[in-house]
Amino acid sequence: MFVTFEGVDGSGKSTQAELLRDALVAEGRDVVLTREPGGTELGEAARELVLNGPEMSPWAETALFAAARAELVARVILPALGRGSDVISDRYVDSSLAYQGIARGIGIEPVLDLNLHVVQGLMPDLTVLLLVDLELAAVRSGATDRLEREGADFRARVDSAYRQLAARFPERIVALDAARPADELSEVIRERLRSRI
């Protein structure tokens, strides 16, 4: 199975992705955990450029994320799924839809079309969207990279974008309150996963 985690920076995605991996490994499953952008040499280089590089246009940002994602799918995700492993990704296509498609104003359709091409049509079996108070998210994330430093207005647009995506793709995206304790939230995620797949 292929599961992705989404949400604003500081929502707890990375923590929950790791907890799910640990739980599945404890059940004897083979699990590959990855992140976006990243997970490959090209992806890590794109991550550095996008998060710590110069200001760039929305389409340039979108294209860099898509390039990193294409490499991740081709070199990590599809091979893992092909050999029967479960794949968990900290961010995937929905990040581009939220950040660039909606919050940057490019539009969902053009960003989705580009990404469906680069991922060879591969979408997650389940996407867990973690919703959290934006002030708490700001404190947790610490505004350490270019996107996080854009401030409260941009973070609010991204949060709104994710909620729009959850309403648009309810068959795939499960939105959960990330304010609850991490271990309790992790159990809820595993229950949702069992009921969906």
Instruction: Count all strands and give the number.
Output: 5
Order of helices and strands: EHEHHEHHEHHEH
Instruction: State mean pLDDT (0 to 100 scale).
Output: 92
SS element count, helices? 8
Specify the helix fraction band.
55-70%
The strand line-up of the biggest sheet is 2-3-1-4-5
Quaternary structure of the protein = single chain
Apparent shape:
globular
Q: Determine the strand fraction and express it as a percent band.
A: 5-15%
Structural class: alpha/beta
* Main sheet attributes: strand count, strand direction, barrel closure: 5 strands, parallel
The low-pLDDT segments are: none
Rg, Cα atoms, Å: 16 Å
The CA-CA distance between the termini, in Å, is 8 Å
Topology:
Layout: E1 2-6, H1 13-26, E2 31-35, H2 41-52, H3 58-82, E3 86-90, H4 93-103, H5 108-118, E4 126-131, H6 134-141, H7 152-168, E5 173-177, H8 182-196
Parallel strand pairs: 1-3, 1-4, 2-3, 4-5
Helix pairs in contact: 1-8, 2-3, 3-4, 3-5, 4-5, 4-7
Characterise the protein shown here.
This protein has 197 residues and is α/β, with parallel strands linked by helices. Helices cover 57% and strands 13% of the residues. It has 8 helices and 5 strands; from the N terminus they run βαβααβααβααβα. It has a 5-stranded parallel β-sheet with strand order 2-3-1-4-5, sandwiched between helices. Helix 1 packs across helix 8, helix 2 packs antiparallel against helix 3 (58-82) and helix 4 (93-103) runs antiparallel to helix 5 (108-118). The mean pLDDT is 92.
